[in-house]
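Quick one, T. Sequence first:
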Amino acid sequence: MRAFPIAGLLIFVLGATPGFAAEPVVAVWYRGTPAGTPRLDDLAAIKAAGFGAITWPSGDVGTIAAVSRLAETVGLAVVIQPDGRAVPSLEGRINIDLTRIRPAEISATAWRAIARGVRTVSIDPGRAEGNGLDRPDGRRRDWVAPAVAIARQMAANAELLGQLRHAASPAFLSSRPSSLDVELFEGPRAWVIIATNTSRARARAEVALPRGVPYAIWVSLLDASTIAMLDRPAGARWAFEIDGGAAAVYVIDKVSTA
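Structure tokens:
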């Protein structure tokens, strides 16, 4: 993916180069009103809802220029995706198709993708036109709140997430449901652990962390709650429960062992 600044607007062109951005981008698929014609009101509504970027199908150079100008006006970044389709398996990015998953599964889906190296997350409400945010009666659609939460979490922690590298994988000390994934990361000054449960059932597990990873106090990047892991001579242990479709993301500062 390559980022191009155009008249103060950041355009992310997917497929331009291999790899992915250092910092996460969370965007909402937007196709225009009618389809192919961007509208300022739609973009303003997406920005006001709490998103910082849109994904736009790249079938026509003229529409890219038009949507770029309007997006700049409201302060949205633009992700350009080839072929005008929400292809789910492009390198370094994921399209979360809301016609296939429930809103309650957005958190687990997005955070698992980030844990596996994805840096562009595009939320696709599956509407051919309009901003996709509201029902005909004006009520906000169920997917908006959890998607906005992801966008804000990624934006607030972009620097931290961009610096992370995989650490040794936690070892499961309990049975491991196939839907459950736990990954440990380290950055220059912090450790981060990401657990995701893609099933609809609550999961329980216990994992052992590598020696040298501290046991307390870890802070949630999602809601600022705290946990204290179990202190063991061989390393910290984490016994936890996680709802179906949910993610748990905790961070702790590195400490000197000198």
